[in-house]
């Protein structure tokens, strides 16, 4: 039997903390990475496999704990998932995001906890400017793919070697509803599933030129908007660092 992807690609996709979502009772294999609507996607998956319970009570921590401590820990999960990736027929779906906007979201996530920002040579207290953040990412070169997926490119090495249906975060709710319709799934309560506090948009109020301003989550309550962080220099850096995402997922240069 011809495998639908090389084994090394399946291995690359089966990242321990960001493992694909798979169930024998679900018609798709979902590839996801952080900062791409991951909480919504995980909740949507849980709803359709009957694991969501009361959606109004399903918070971010509960959603990710289910994947980490229930789904992944099920006996045979990794073996069945690998077999499906290599030889199965379920369509593989990956959620992707505009690289410019994702870079800003990833920057804020890095600022919010020492576990990431210390890898970039700073602390939550000291903070960092968006320009400095991008220059630090650029300094990793090809090894950037080894960084945590909150800040690394969305692209998984080798994914172009297998058919994948890409769903854009910018149109996520409508595209998930299309997937439901295609597979004959029950329509999910999308407004409830899409409700999430796991983002920074409500704090992004500052307008102006903030690309080179040091931002600290300890001292700064309000945050710059996407436009306030993207100038000619930072746009060029995003386009260089995340060129593979722009290319593979079909986003146009300069559009965000």
Automatic annotation (TrEMBL):
InterPro entries, alphabetized: P-loop_NTPase, Sulfotransferase
GO cellular component, one term: membrane
GO MF terms, alphabetically ordered: sulfotransferase activity
Protein name stated in the entry: Sulfotransferase family protein
């Amino acid at each position: 039997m011809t495998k639908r992807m090389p084994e090394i690609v399946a291995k690359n996709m089966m990242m321990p903390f960001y493992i694909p979502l798979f169930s024998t009772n679900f018609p798709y294999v979902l590839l996801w990475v952080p900062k791409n609507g991951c909480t919504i996607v995980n909740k949507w998956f849980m709803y359709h496999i009957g694991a969501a319970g009361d959606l109004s009570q399903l918070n971010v921590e509960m959603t990710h704990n289910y994947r980490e401590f229930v789904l992944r820990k099920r006996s045979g999960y990794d073996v069945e998932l690998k077999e499906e990736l290599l030889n199965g027929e379920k369509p593989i779906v990956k959620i992707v995001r505009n690289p410019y906007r994702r870079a800003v979201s990833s920057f804020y996530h890095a600022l919010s906890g020492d576990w990431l920002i210390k890898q970039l040579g700073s602390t939550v207290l000291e903070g960092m400017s968006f320009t400095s953040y991008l220059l630090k990412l650029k300094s990793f070169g090809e090894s950037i793919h080894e960084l945590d997926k909150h800040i690394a490119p969305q692209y998984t090495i080798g994914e172009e070697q297998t058919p994948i249906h890409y769903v854009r975060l910018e149109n996520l709710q409508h595209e998930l509803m299309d997937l439901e319709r295609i597979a004959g799934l029950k329509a999910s309560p999308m407004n409830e599933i899409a409700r999430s506090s796991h983002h920074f948009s409500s704090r992004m109020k500052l307008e102006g030129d903030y690309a080179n301003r040091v931002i600290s989550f300890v001292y700064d309550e309000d945050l710059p908007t996407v436009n306030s962080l993207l100038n000619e220099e930072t746009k060029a850096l995003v386009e260089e660092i995340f060129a593979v995402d722009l290319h593979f997922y079909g986003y146009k240069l300069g559009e965000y």
